[in-house]
What does this fold into?
Amino acid sequence: MTKKSFLDKLKSGLNVLKDEEVQEIIDEYESYINEEMHNGKTEEEAVLHLGDVDELINEILDAYKLKQIKKTKESRIVNILISVVLTVIFLLCLRVVIDIFDVVVFKLMRRYSVFYKLTSLILDGTYIVLSLSIILSVLTGFKNNLSIRQIFDRMLLIKEKPTSDKVSDEKEIVGVAKNSKSNNFLGYFINFLILTTKFFYYLVIVLPMLVLICILSVITGAILYFSIVGYGLWGFSIVGIALVVLGILSLIIIHKLFKREQLKVYLLSFVAILVILGLGISLSIKEYLSFSYVDFPLKKETLTKEINQDLLINDSYSTSYQFVETKDIPINSVYIEVTHAEYESVNIGQSKDMIFISVNGVDTQKFIKTSLEKIKDKKLLQSKDFTVIIKHNPKNTLKNVEYGEKMILFYK
Amino acid sequence: MNTQYKKGVIELLVLLATKDQDQYGYDLVKQVMEVFEINEGTLYPLLKRLSNEKYFETYLKESSDGPPRKYYHLTSLGKEALQTQLKQWKEFEQGVNKFIERKLNND
It folds into this structure.
């Protein structure tokens, strides 16, 4: 055997090691051979004294706590057959996942056929590129006489290889399948499933979930703001916060599952947040049931009864309402000042064809509804088409006035 | 000579060979081969293992005959291992010799 063929075979047999490790070993043996030749031996004699190359490879790998896979002709054929079968399974599974993804995209984007077609094209392109690269990597593996493990390590882009510092650590042995399990096909298949799942997990789950979490955070922030300024939506706030935290925790848990790390703390947190979510939902239901709506801003109603002039008597109508005629109010209009212990103040006004109510305080919607019902019950406005404008005007700040303007109601 | 005997003792020989002076691979092979024949290639895995066990530190040194050579320097850990192995070897040798002599004399 020549020096070159010896070193080539050695290199091929050691290719589970890091490239620099292999080069170091090759250099060492090359220097042995060169020394022997320098001392008068022929190239073949020098190589012969190094012993059987396969035994040598085994001993070197043994020093790295790895074992060589014996490459007999029969085992090579078996390797090729198994690799072909695994590759076909791999490609079929990949196709199924791509199709599922395609259907999801179709459901989401069917209204925008251009985007769907574009996404579909990208998916098909990705599949073709992935398939070709996988087939090429397997064929290259056959050509280089690699073991199944090496072929699939390359195919699955598993680059982790032991270094001299890590040799004693059994965990550092190449790939998922270790030492004595170096031919564990199930291990490779699981590896491939994990990798494919990972890819689509990030694309189909992580990305949409992150978007959802962001949207949910914004909504929760808004609800929290309204709770703080006096609308009492604490139950909804808790639900929002709990959902955001649950979303983040779910992502962390799935991520840890992939990495096969400890989940105990995260699972306990998940359960704790579920309890808080339950509390939030209960509070939300209570808040929802106690909530009264006025359909802003487009509820329309026609009142046809005559205005009851009795209602315009100063200071005498009810304990909750005061109806006051003033010089500032135009003819055929009424100025109604409403006070209530629960509210700071409410003003209801009427012109020729409209009534307006200005409310300063909290729980505006509920109060306006009650006010309107009472106005109708007391036949304040009769035989007349009119418009009611309700103004929410709390705190006399510009911001709130702007907000109040959005709450204008039209009753016609 | 029985390969298993060689395997058992080759580590001791390599440690001893580097006790007083740093050696490079080829030279170590030659020193071991003064004791018994070995496949020259088999020494590298042993040197690698002993380096991993921190018995050796390695460094490159220029050579007038060709490319730089990798030299093996015995560390204090390696020296401790050498003392232990020497003690074990002596006990082993004495024990085996005594047994052989006793058996041979009895026969």
In short: Residues 7 and 38 of chain B are 10 Å apart (CA to CA). The beta strands of chain B are 23-24, 56-63, 66-74.
